[in-house]
Specification:
The structure is a homodimer of 282-residue chains.
Chain A (H helix, E strand, L loop, with lengths): L1 H11 L4 E3 L5 H10 L9 E5 L1 H10 L2 E7 L7 H13 L2 E4 L2 H7 L8 E6 L15 E6 L4 H14 L3 E5 L8 H7 L8 E4 L2 H10 L3 E5 L16 E6 L15 E3 L12 H18 L1
Parallel strand pairs in A: 1-4, 3-4, 6-7, 6-10, 7-8, 9-10, 9-11
Antiparallel strand pairs in A: 2-5, 3-5
Helix pairs in contact in A: 1-4, 3-4, 6-7, 6-9
InterPro entries (chains A, B): MRM3-like_sub_bind (IPR053888), rRNA_Methyltransferase (IPR051259), SpoU_MeTrfase (IPR001537)
Family (chains A, B): Belongs to the class IV-like SAM-binding methyltransferase superfamily. RNA methyltransferase TrmH family.
Keywords (chains A, B): Methyltransferase, Transferase
Amino acid sequence: MEYRELKSLLDRNLHRIKTIGMHHEKITELRRLLNGGSGESGTDLAVEGMWALQKLLTAGLRIKAFIICPECIYSIEGIQLAEKMIVSAEEIYTVSKKVMEKLSGRDKPDGFITIAELQEYGERGLILPDRALVMVLDGLESPGNIGTILRSCDGAGVDAVLLCNMNVRMTHPKLIKASMGAVFRVPVVYFAEAEHCVKWLTSRDYQIYLADSAAVDGYTSISYENNTALVVGNERYGLSDIWYDPGPRLVSIPMHGLCDSLNVGVAASILAYTVIQQRQQG
Amino acid sequence: MEYRELKSLLDRNLHRIKTIGMHHEKITELRRLLNGGSGESGTDLAVEGMWALQKLLTAGLRIKAFIICPECIYSIEGIQLAEKMIVSAEEIYTVSKKVMEKLSGRDKPDGFITIAELQEYGERGLILPDRALVMVLDGLESPGNIGTILRSCDGAGVDAVLLCNMNVRMTHPKLIKASMGAVFRVPVVYFAEAEHCVKWLTSRDYQIYLADSAAVDGYTSISYENNTALVVGNERYGLSDIWYDPGPRLVSIPMHGLCDSLNVGVAASILAYTVIQQRQQG
């Protein structure tokens, strides 16, 4: 019965739907994106599955292409999501189960893949509230760490994430996965160089706090008033030298055991939640 | 010059050192461990590199075998470490550069691999202080997450980590790597079933706190006095039902954005540091 409803939905939209095979250029583009390559524009990303598509819709991203495999869809939720996607997507394609299984990274694909476009925020386009809290990632290398930090920043309510010295694209599949959809929502601004980011922050009256396990001040001893920037650095090499010029304050998360530091994703998350909790209680 | 010192060190200990090749049974054992298999005993682990070996020595683990490639060692630090390892190791083997390169996961191996033994703590062998803080991991699947949590527990000063419903061994190479050596130090106790762990905790007057993103009580609204157990669950399915029997309190870390929850490693770390900081300030 459900499948009949889906068929009727697709029939009603037949003029907008194209059935394509493995050798179609859209599939080639999709495979490149799913393998971590870049798309037409650097902000294109591919995501699979109902869960991620729900998040994309909630975040209101532009849906450039919707690829659906009707044979893989069995649930009412699937049909309802297909209906929403058909309204939102600029291009709609159906593929066979065989093609979907080749594209999918899963044992049992749920029939949905999408190409969406991340919103770009230039440094001027970003409008932040008073007493903003931003997280700066300097030279991070692991897509998983960056995704985890985005997830925590989304959760804590960090206003934006600023990136410098970054070779990982926000559209990297591992980053998207670790972010659990946060990459669709949290505003991200790129700075080629840390120096530029420092200037941006200081000209906007941000107090800058560097996470540094050797710092004297503990992270809970500080009153994070006004505009606050938390800065974490590369997994192995830490922060670029420029951050240690006068201005920023160093804060440490105490280490009581054998290890010298925390995982950078954990450290960033602890700091972000500390600022937010302190402000809500203060 | 340095190499001459190393040669003299090895010559002095010649009676204890065996030179072995790729087909020696010790190498077979080592490769199995490095690939995530289990050793003679379930607590054997293999670690590579000077950094990890320093941590092993500091933690005081039993060193069952030390495999050294003299041709790979160039620094004074390397020779000093070799000296310490020769004193501590029960068996010592030298291998050629070719063998070391085949064993190593690195571009440039630094010449050191070790088989050590993790300390086992039975539930009765574990002696904990007053107002102890323990972290309970219920059914976690990702070796990386477990390793990251151990690293945070080591940093925060958590007294022990209790494991239930766990299929990942503490000797898994990814876990060891993510733990940055914390797995060598933090006491870990296994419980086959969560029910057994609940009994262990309640009979010792632990107040149990479950991390649950749907909970009403925020994690900072609670006073973590007396013996405290923090419990986090499986990455996808959360906690076993038994935890929701009367007794434990649910605590949430507020989620202000698109995501429903934090990465489990991040959540565990935030909770652990919150308890420790609250106690130090209170």
